[in-house]
Every structure is written in C-alpha cells, then in structure tokens.
Specification:
The structure holds 3 protein chains of 3 kinds.
Chain A: E1 4-9, H1 10-20, E2 25-28, H2 35-43, H3 46-49, E3 53-56, H4 60-72, E4 77-81, H5 83-98, E5 103-109, H6 125-130, E6 140-142, H7 147-164, E7 167-173, H8 174-178, E8 180-185, E9 211-212, H9 219-239, E10 243-246, E11 253-256, H10 259-274, E12 279-284, E13 286-288, H11 292-299, E14 305-309, H12 315-323, E15 329-333, H13 342-359
Parallel strand pairs in A: 2-3, 2-4, 4-5, 5-7, 6-7, 11-12, 11-14, 14-15
Antiparallel strand pairs in A: 1-8, 6-13, 10-12
Helix pairs in contact in A: 1-2, 1-7, 4-5, 10-13, 11-12
Chain B: H1 2-6, E1 12-14, H2 32-47, E2 53-58, H3 65-68, E3 72-76, H4 81-91, E4 96-102, H5 103-109, H6 111-120, E5 125-130, E6 133-134, E7 140-141, H7 160-163, H8 169-174, E8 179-186, H9 190-208, E9 213-219, H10 223-226, H11 230-244, E10 248-252, E11 256-257
Helix pairs in contact in B: 2-9, 5-6
Chain C: E1 5-9, H1 19-23, E2 29-35, E3 41-45, H2 55-59, E4 65-69
Antiparallel strand pairs in C: 1-4, 2-3
Classes of the chains: A alpha/beta, B alpha/beta, C alpha+beta.
The complex binds thiamine diphosphate, iron/sulfur cluster (3 copies) and magnesium ion (MG).
One iron/sulfur cluster (SF4) is lined by residues 5, 7, 23-24, 26, 28-29, 50-56, 67 of chain C.
C-alpha cells in the first residue's frame, strides 16, 4: 500500500497521527495554539474509524486525570495542551509517573510566565525535562522540529510509553503546531487488543486484585519505588537518546538547538559557513534522555558552543553540565513569543567567537 | 451444647463478604468508613459483579480502600476521582465503575470534577462519605461542616459569615439532568446500613442500563475528628447532621426530584 | 427456650467501639474486662438469648462478628 502524502498543519497532523496510531482515548481542553487537535479529532468521526473515544473535559486537571483512568486500564490515552494548561496538568503527571502509567502529553508551547502570549516559545523546557510536578520523576521528552516528526513521534511516544511504563511528553511549540508542511502518514495501526497484565480490567476470579497507585506509606517501600524509577530512567538514558548532527565532522563551533529553534539555527549555521566559520549543529531530539555523551565528545573538538533557544536560557544548563567546563557554552535567546532570525544568531556567534579566541591559551 | 450445634457451616447467616479482603481495617474504632465499605462490597457480591468492577479511591481516610475492597482499583489524586472514573468508563463502558469519596474530596477540591461528571451523566456510581470534616488530615473544617460546629480550623465553630455555609452538594447534583438516582443514607444502625446497601445495589444495577450518574451519599461519623467516642458520635450525628442532611431519596428514576433537602427527618 | 442463634467474635480484630452493643435487641453483648493484644476491650456474649438477627455484625465497622442461626 502506498503511503499517503498530505499537506497538513502540525496540530492537525498530530491528531490524524493519533487516530492512525490506534490511540484509544483523547481527553483535552481548548487552549491556543493547540485547539486544532481536539477540533480535528471531534470532526474526524473517530468512533467509527477506530473506536477512539474523544472527550472535551471541564479543565486540564480533569483531562489529565481522565488520561490516568484510561491509562490505568492499559489503554493508549492522549492529552494535549499549551503551557498554562500544562501547568494545571502537573499534579496528574506526577501521579502518572508515580503509578508508572504510560500515556502521551503534547505541549504546544506558548510564552510565559502567566497568561503571557499565545505566541510560540520554548520556555517550558525546564518544566518538561526537570519535573514540573512534585517528586523525583522523569518524563521521556521528544522535541519535533517538523510536522513530519510531529506525526512520527505520536507513534514513537506510545511505543516508548508502554515499553517503559512512563508518561511521554511531546514538546512542540506554536510554530510547528501552526505550520503547514508535507507529511507522509503511516498506515492505520490496530488499537491494543490484549491489556497489559498490570491494568485494571476487573479482577479475575481467584486472582489477586490489581491496583494502580502511587501511594506507599512506608518510607522503606517508597525509597525502593524511587530506586526502581531511577533505575528505569537510567535504562531510558542508555537506550533512547536521539539527536541529529549537521556538519559536525569538521566543526570548530557548535550550535545546540531543539525543535523550531534548530531549524533557524541551521540557517545560521549555513550563513556562518558561507563566511568561513566552520559551524556545526547538534539537535537534541530527546530532551530527556539528553544527548550528554555526544555533547561531551564534541566538547573536545570545538572551541565553544552556543545554544539557541526561544527562552531565557534553559537547555544551556544541560549543555554546560554535559560539557563540564571543557569548552565555553553560551546561550542566545529571544523570548516572550519573539522568534530569533538567522542573522542575529550569526551575530551572537561572531561576538562569542571573539571572546572564545581571546580566552584561548596562547 | 446448644451453642455447638448452632455454630456449624450450614447455619452461617452472616460473615464478611469475599468482596472484602481479609486485611484488618486501619480506620479509627467505630468509624463508618468500614461499614460503608462492607455495604458496597455486599452490594457488589449480591450482584455477582466482583470481576467486572473497577473502583476509584481518591485521597482521604479511605485512600487505602483498595486494601480492603477486593476488586480492581485505582488510587486518585485528591478530588479527581470522577475524572479518573470517567477515563475508565469511557474506555471500558461494559465494566461497573464506582468512586468512593469523602466530603472534602467531593465537595471542595473536587467540586468541578464531581459536578461535570454528573452533568455529563457519566455512567458510574459515586459513593460519597459525608462526615462533615477532613478526617485524614486531622479534623479540619470541610465544606460540609455544620454552622457552629468546631474543627481544628474553626476552633470557635464554623462562622457562616466568614467561612460560608455548608454545601449540600448532593441536592445540587440532583438538579442536573445527568444524574439518575440520588439518595442520602447512613450506616450507623442495622436498618440504615441495610438500606444503604440496597441503595448501592440499585445504583449498580442502573449502571447496566446506562442511565446516568448515581450518587449515594452516606452521612457518617468521624469519632476522632469530632473528638467523641463512637457511640456518642453516632448520637451526635442523628441529632445534628440528620436535620441538616435529611436521610432518604433525593432523586428517583421515574419520579425525578422527591426531596429538596429542606425538610429534616 | 433453646437458643436460635449464635455468634463468633474475632476478638483480636475488635476495636471496642461498642457500636454493636446498641444494635443488639437481646442485650447479648457487653464489653470485656480484659483487653486484646492491641489494647482494646472487646465484645463478649453475656447471655444465650441470641436470635441470629445479624444486627451486631452488620453495624460492626471492622467485620468482627460472624452470625449463625438455626433455620
Ligand atoms: C492536593 C492535595 N491537597 C491536600 C491534601 C491533603 N488532604 C488529604 S485528605 C484531605 C481531606 C480529606 O477529607 P475528606 O475528603 O472529607 O475525607 P475523610 O478523610 O474525611 O474521609 C486533605 C486536605 C492532599 N492529599 N492533596
Ligand atoms: S479520622 Fe475520622 S474518618 Fe478517618 S478513620 Fe478516623 S474516624 Fe474515620
Ligand atoms: S445476632 Fe442479633 S441477637 Fe445475636 S448478638 Fe447479634 S444482634 Fe444480638
Ligand atoms: S462493633 Fe465490632 S469492633 Fe466495635 S465493639 Fe462491636 S465487635 Fe468490636
Ligand atoms: Mg470527610
């Protein structure tokens, strides 16, 4: 069967991908710039196409808890929102991580703090990668930079979520969510037929009842649970790091950028190359697990790194941790909904380059 | 001699149902939670639906209900049980789903989830334990605390001018077209407990017909939070809680609203 | 008159709340002088008038009592 190619908006493409991925249920609450996801699903006749349940909840809090209930039954459950709504979901996300339930949360990020603006941003990096909710937990975080990746990551996210029994976040932003691009859709996947053995599906006669919970009253037990979670996160770090390199073989300076910033940083890289600066670009695809090893390796090669982010400097901290002082790491950002241009990125790089060369031992 | 002949398997008329586990309950002596659990478990037992039932226990003294109720269960965040139950019921519509919520849970932090689940007419049973207090956290004021009633956060008694009036959320949700059967019961006497069990059984039966949300409120005691011994607490409940929260059906299939909650019993 | 009913009290699980005492129409139940291993006084039978009505068992929050009745 020939794969279907369509021109689609990022948000709508993710919604279609959810149906095609055999997702069982979507629960959401409208917020710009991602309302197209629920709107698309509501008009897609999902009940007939795959039997997928779609419900507009009374709040993001309710939506994420509906995801918890459905995920606890071993179903593929999806929710989406944008920054202020994701803040409301944080309690539920912590519970999902604690109860080790697989699910996918899409964040089409807009600028903050507060109500701020509906314009695109990457200022939820910390919230997505460092926690956001309470407790020692990690989400697997995927950052698409194209509409195609938005589609592919829906399916990949559910695979990872079920493989590790962990919530996965797709950290998109207002640019990718709203942008039209050509996408190749995958074939319709079946919905899950066999429930996982940990799911609540009604107690089998003679068997012990199944319980979904994040509660462990005894500190000794809770520590063991935490240790198990940490061991799982180490496994994720070992096996699931994903990134993309552009012209890094001979690079003397390195851009590090994710999502839509990476698209712009790539243009800045080309501009730099045309001026004789051997720039490269590393694009983390998974923000957790972070491509620590690759950044560390490149730290021995380049004279400096510049992260390009639509925030006041968040991922730069992780790059610095990976580099651990071996080479200078700086941040260039526009925020509040402003999108950086390749020219100003190049300018920022040139300024840093001078500093870095001065710092170099004679 | 006579005794020996009476205690024999064929004469057994009442023992703890198999829909409860053998685990000892952690509740304070005389607390209604234990009896309410058992009435629910007996209703499930009588209908023979143990293997088709999924329960949701949110935070509150009964957060560990899954230790005692021998059915598949999910623990939920404080107030969120109706949303969790919605998620369950939407993907497994053929299962019997219930929530078991305290008054702080259902009528304060979870008000939105409760009202909207009822308004959508989600097909599950809400068991609502109204003890007029936050039991688990040590006896603070609940949305249901009576006017003048003392708690650790209203040590001089609830002052309705500054703290608001108790919320009769059961009467409130009975107004919504999404609810099908709404009733208020208690479990402190044999007669009342039997009635509560019948109400829960009826509610579970209606679930099969997909008629909407059923709410069974159980006005209950909290001897620890109320700082009374169990027998006193039940007496206090009859004298003070029941006039404000009159027992009986509030909304009945076929008849609609049958009580406005104003006439005390 | 021969007794019609009888009960078994799982005294180790009794929390001494006394809720069952009022529920019994035949005044069969009293609290013990002694305490169980958890330090609670527990329910004891003081006569053989039990009818096996199960009232005590139904209101017992801790499901301590099993009831037998000659049918
Ligand atoms: C988000 C959140 N806020 C507060 C608490 C603390 N808390 C736990 S139970 C509870 C009140 C429980 O009262 P109720 O629902 O009436 O149940 P009861 O214990 O009386 O049966 C509170 C405030 C919590 N666990 N989570
Ligand atoms: S604190 Fe109150 S509600 Fe909680 S177990 Fe004790 S008596 Fe029951
Ligand atoms: S079964 Fe009835 S008569 Fe017998 S002890 Fe219990 S309450 Fe009393
Ligand atoms: S009601 Fe149960 S726990 Fe309470 S005193 Fe009687 S037997 Fe003991
Ligand atoms: Mg309470």
């Amino acid at each position: 069967m020939k794969k279907e190619i369509r021109l689609m908006k990022g948000n709508e493409a993710m919604a279609e991908a959810a149906i095609l991925a055999g997702v069982d249920a979507y629960f959401g609450y409208p917020i710009t710039p991602q309302s197209e996801i629920i709107e698309y699903l509501m008009s897609a006749n999902t009940a007939e196409r795959t039997g997928m349940q779609v419900l507009q909840a009374e709040s993001e809090i309710a939506a994420i808890n509906m995801v918890y209930g459905a995920a606890g039954c071993g179903k593929r459950a999806l929710t989406s929102s944008s920054s202020p709504g994701i803040s409301l979901k944080m309690e539920g996300i912590s519970y999902l991580a604690g109860a080790e339930l697989p699910c996918v949360i899409v964040n089409v990020v807009r600028a903050g703090p507060g109500l701020a603006t509906i314009q695109p941003s990457q200022s939820d990096y910390f919230q997505a990668v460092k926690g956001g909710g309470h407790g020692d937990y990690k989400l697997i975080v995927l950052a698409p930079s194209t509409v195609q990746e938005s589609v592919d990551f829906i399916r990949l996210s559910f695979d990872l979520a079920f493989k590790y029994r962990n919530p996965v976040m797709i950290l998109s932003d207002g640019i990718i969510g709203q942008m039209m691009e050509k996408v190749e859709l995958f074939e319709q996947q079946p919905r899950l037929s066999e429930p996982p053995e940990w799911a609540t599906r009604g107690k089998k006669p003679g068997a012990k009842s199944t319980v979904i919970t994040s509660l462990h009253l005894e500190s000794e037990d809770m520590e063991q649970v935490n240790l198990r979670l940490q061991a799982k996160y180490r496994e994720v770090e070992k096996h699931e790091v994903r990134f993309e390199l552009f012209r890094c073989e001979d690079a003397e300076v390195l851009f590090v950028a994710f999502g839509s910033s990476a698209r712009i940083a790539r243009k800045a890289m080309d501009l730099a190359r045309s001026k004789g600066i051997r720039a490269g670009l590393l694009r983390p695809i998974t923000l957790f697990p972070f491509p620590v090893e690759e950044i560390r390796r490149l730290a021995g090669q380049v004279s400096g790194m510049l992260t390009v982010e639509m925030n006041a400097g968040q991922m730069v901290e992780d790059v610095r941790l990976a580099v651990n002082g071996r080479t200078p790491v700086e941040h260039f950002g526009r925020f509040g909904g402003m999108i950086p241009g390749p020219d100003e990125i190049l300018e920022a790089l040139e300024t840093r380059l001078e500093e870095w060369h001065q710092k170099q031992p004679a | 001699m006579a005794e020996q002949s009476i205690i024999s398997p064929e004469n057994l008329v009442y023992k703890k149902t198999g829909v409860m586990t053998d685990r000892e309950l952690h509740y304070c002596p005389g607390c209604g939670h234990g009896t309410a659990h058992r009435m629910l478990a007996e209703a499930i037992d009588e209908l023979g639906i143990q293997s088709e039932t999924i329960g949701v226990a949110p935070v509150g003294c009964s957060v560990l209900a899954y230790y005692y109720l021998n059915v598949d269960m999910q623990e939920a965040a404080h107030g969120r049980a109706p949303a969790v139950a919605t998620g369950i019921k939407r993907v497994l519509p053929e299962k019997y789903v219930f929530t078991y919520q305290g008054d702080g849970d259902l009528a304060a932090i979870g008000t939105a989830e409760t009202i909207h689940a009822c308004n959508r007419g989600e097909n599950f049973l809400i068991v609502f334990i109204n003890n007029g207090i936050y039991g688990m956290t040590g006896g603070q004021m609940a949305p249901t605390t009576l006017p003048g009633m003392k708690s650790s956060t209203c040590p001089l008694g609830r002052d309705v001018l500054t703290m608001g009036n108790p919320l009769k959320i059961t009467e409130l949700v009975a107004q919504l077209p999404g609810t099908y059967y709404v009733t208020r019961q208690s479990v402190h006497t044999p007669g009342n407990a039997r009635k509560a069990r019948r109400a829960m059984k009826k509610a579970l039966e209606y679930q099969k017909e997909n008629k909407g949300t059923c709410v069974v409120e159980v006005v209950s005691n909290c001897p620890s939070g109320w700082k009374m011994n169990p027998v006193e607490s039940n007496k206090w409940m009859e004298e003070n809680m029941f006039p404000f929260y009159p027992l009986g059906d509030i909304k009945v299939p076929g008849k609609g609203l049958v009580s406005d909650g104003k006439n005390g019993s | 008159m021969a007794a019609k009913g009888d009960i078994i009290i799982d005294i180790e699980r009794c929390k001494g709340c006394q809720v069952c005492l009022d529920a019994c129409p035949k005044d069969v139940l009293e609290m013990s002088r002694k305490v169980n291993s958890k330090g609670y006084q527990y329910t004891v039978k003081v006569n053989s008038d039990c009818t096996g009505c199960a009232n005590c068992a139904i209101v017992c929050p801790d499901a301590v009592i099993s009831v037998y009745r000659v049918k």
